[in-house]
Write a structure and sequence with these properties.
The protein has about 240 residues and is of the alpha/beta class. It folds into two domains: about 70 residues, Roll (Ubiquitin-like (UB roll)), CATH 3.10.20; about 130 residues, Cell division protein FtsQ/DivIB (Rossmann fold, 3-Layer(aba) Sandwich). It has six helices and twelve strands. The protein is elongated and about 90 Å long. The model has no long low-confidence stretch (mean pLDDT about 90).
Amino acid sequence: MKRKRRKPTAAARIRPFWLPIGFAVALLAGALAFAAVYPGFEPKRVVVSGNSRVSRQEILARAAVAPHLTIWLQNTGAIAQRVAAIPYIDVVHVRRIPPATIRIVVTERAPFAVVRSGYDAVIVDRTLRVLEPVEDENTLPVLDIGPGIALTPGAVLRSSAAVALRAAYETMASRQMMPAQLALDRYGGLVVTMHSGLRLMLGGQNDLAQKLTLADAIVSQIVTQRRRVAAIDLRAPSAPVLVYR
């Protein structure tokens, strides 16, 4: 009775190639060791692009590229994280370009609104990341979230007031109604001040679209009739109230 042939094991199949494999591994290890110590691979240039608001000097300072460590041993992920910590920076890409260049490409955040909390005011982007304190007059809409909220540059605001006011602004902007300021009253109702000074007391936001349609119709009548109205109370849409100057 013939015995069945055993299939060669994986180790047996690769045994003839052990020598070249060992040679290749040794060659790779040598190449890595060479790359780690060869001075020609130490970064001679750090190229920065994509920035306009943030200076090149600030990006380089945050990047903290090690001058005597070859580009192959530089931690590009850590470099990107450090640069992304700059409040105005959104996306960062870091690349090694042989023999001795590191390229940093950034995308900056765009100012969206001013957020006010008590006496503090900062500029934020659409994600509500705090970009910088307000120093000069600007035309951005103001979201007044009430006192007691820390406005730290680089932080993302997650308060319910900030999120609600951003949503209200975007709803109004989609209708070409550009408010100057949005706030919440003590009951959590939305209060909007238009650039003309007209105040819209809109209450809860569940039926905001209906209230804005009504407000637009009333404002059109006010303009036509040249009536001096200081505020429109739409907290009860079925019974709007006009407050005259």
